[in-house]
Amino acid sequence: MVDGLGKCFYIQETESAKKPKGVWARVKFWPERLRHGVTQPFGGKREFWALRNVSFTVKRGTVLGVIGPNGAGKSTLLKVIARVTPPTEGRVRGVGRVVSLLELGAGFNPEVSARENIIMNAAMYGVPRTDIEKHFDDIIAFAEIEQFVDTPLKFYSSGMYLRLAFSVAVNMRPQILIADEILAVGDIAFQERCLARVSELANDGLTVLFVSHDMEAILKVCNEVIWLNGGRIQGAGDPDKVVTEYQNVAWAKNEAARTEKGRHSNRNAELIAAKLVSQRGREIGAAPIGEEVGVRIRFSVQRPLKARIGFDLTHRGGLIFRTMTPEWIEIAEPGLYEALGRIPPSFLTEILYGVNAFLIMHAEGKESSLIIYGAVSFMGYDNERGIEKQQLQKGGLLAPRLEWSLKKETLVNA
Fold it and tell me: Which uninterrupted H or E stretch holds 78?
């Protein structure tokens, strides 16, 4: 049971944001600050409530989906329930062992083998060694790492890490399992196996809290759904009903945003969205680094113009590279268009990337540009079963496979 849960963070305001000029400005902005949960006066640190007055009850054997836009408080809610961070107010009550799957490999020691990590994790969760030894073969088989049981985890790919983390979590015989978007890091076949196992264990009485942006997965495995927005519950109940309401609101907001001038539309064109896609064109949530992936940018044009389309690849706000169509493209007819920028295989590494999509155009003798910041966020992952490449892929922002040659130099005596 979650009762009146709230989590407050304190944020240092920038100099420009600390104090509006004049008394009237302070009075004018105060209701807006209160609406966003800011209760401190202007200046210094301010309060930001990631969660506020969140209450719900989850029955045994329920798979509860938690949905909402970025920044809604979903991950914060799971971290409070998992006792990773304490609440500012309210309380959480539950019965039984809680196992969380919030971050890739959290709780693992990369310097030791899978065998040792499994034993250490069992000890952390209070599972007797004799019990975990009974399920050891099942853990290894589900993770598909039979050949690498005694290999240090620092040599594992992110796909191997994920399979081991999930297999360990579900075989700790928890009463409550908490899973975040981590399941997006893995191939489709493994995601399907995870969801099938979650459904199977729920039928045996396991309670699951599952955060995802994948509405298809939510509808497939969840009995109930709560919708968070701005740190508060905006909807709860039947998955079909809540997901439909959430998507309708999200689409309405996107439509409204596209009508605002100066953001990502103007009188000449409209930059609609960007998606990460596989080599076959299917939308994906993470990039397998051994395969080609693409950034698909959709835009509409209202009049004939010349355009260049591109995107920035970023990491933690820093620019890694910028790419765009090499030449100006003549677009003669109004309509809806899609551009695809391809990222070659063996180019990315196992980190979190961001994408800013942009459109530069010449129309009616003037140049203008449109941009969507943070249009895509994704993680690169390697789902190889082997360990040969992992030292290269653990560091750096990129891991390109370059062509090399070697020749023997002839020494000339002076």
Answer: helix 74-81
Note the pLDDT tens digit of each residue in 18-54.
Answer: 555 454 444 444 444 444 455 555 456 788 899 999 9
- Section 52-57 average pLDDT: 93
What Cα–Cα distance (Å) separates residue 38 from each residue in 29, 50, 76, 368, 381?
Answer: 11, 11, 18, 36, 38
For the stretch 90-109, what's the b/e string if a residue is b when 16 or more beta carbons lie within 10 angstroms of its beta carbon? bebeeeeebbbbbebbebbe
d(C-alpha 184, C-alpha 191), whole Å = 7
- For the record, the structure tokens of 315 come out as 């990491």
d(CA 88, CA 154): 36
What is the arithmetic mean of pLDDT over 143-163? 86
Could you tell me which residues come within 8 angstroms of residue 74 by beta carbon, excluding any fewer than 6 positions away? 66, 67, 68, 180, 211, 228
- Asked whether 296 and 338 are in contact (CB, 8 A), the reply is yes
CA angle at 80 for the pair 76 and 81, rounded to the nearest 5°: 115
DSSP code of residue 325: -
Residue whose token pair is 């980190």? 351
Q: What is the chain's length?
A: 414
